[in-house]
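Quick start: load a record and inspect it. Here is Protein-glutamate methylesterase/protein-glutamine glutaminase:
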Amino acid sequence: MKKNILVIDDSALMRRLLSDIINSDDRFVVEDVATNGLEALNFLVKDYGKYDAVIMDINMPKMNGHELLEQLQKHRIKAKVIVVSTVAKEGAIETIRALELGAFDFVTKPCSFIDAKSESFSEKILLSLTVATNTVNKALITKNTSIVNINTNTTKENLITRNEITLKKKFVKSVANASTKKIVALACSTGGPKALQSVVPYLPANLDAPVLIVQHMPEGFTNSLATRLNEISKINVKEAEHGEIIKKGWVYIAKGGYQMRVKKLSSSEYQLLVTLEAPRNGLKPCADIMYESLLDTDYDEITCVILTGMGGDGTKGIKQLEEKKNIYVIAQDEPTCTVYGMPKVVKEAGLVDEVQPLTKVQEAITKNVGVR
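Running the structure step on this input writes:
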């Protein structure tokens, strides 16, 4: 059975283009179109169960995307909303706000109609719909995307039993002293921007370690994400910059479109390398690259955190760290994940020490790292 999609955009051209893209895939069909948020709200209030996913612009007359998302929360309507947004500064800020309000994911809107008709844009739309409608077993696989099938025939009971057996318990707590070198390295993807709001703002300002974050996002969006998190957090948050010295009590978010690594300068100083280079598995930033860079450091304790996200980015890098370093791995649990992909893969690899619901992740990090 085809998945029903609601398209919301005030541009007739974009409605036609999006409809053509969606209807070109035999798994989806555009059930209805709306020219603004108010019209869409009427559709959703009348029969929101009719739609498996919603494609939405933000800037629209009568009721914009933000207002629509607020109304959906007010009416307790659970809809998988995918925002199609521009990469401009204003568009990035608006997208972060939409994700805060419950949007499932976003796709960057091309700057021109010619780009909008490109294969790349079509692939991104269909991929987001694939994940949102839980049809990953028939996922569109492209050279720019790495997907792990998160739909298996394994029963939940068997999965829990197997994972409990493989949970590792190798982490050795260092004797607490001023010279103990610690770092937290966190990775997330789909659902990550909203998830980070349940973690980062609750970290103490005097956390006894720096925090590195790889959130899969295009260039232009991560700075807005960092700025927003910094506004609501006790700890300092910023987008990572090339060459800067890493400091305890700071959170560094990898720059979208770039790779981020840690480089040892001396026994007490480390710097960030933020480089423009090819993606790995279609990802830049890529969490595996961040984790692998920690192999050449002498941190006494490395706390790895994996939150919601599609695919398995981070598992390979953590596996390499586990073989040579003193690490502790925290994974978000399935019920609180927007997409239970990345935490599932790292857990099934037997690398996880602790599984926590999203609201307990910051507590687990702070307890493990300590404060100054």
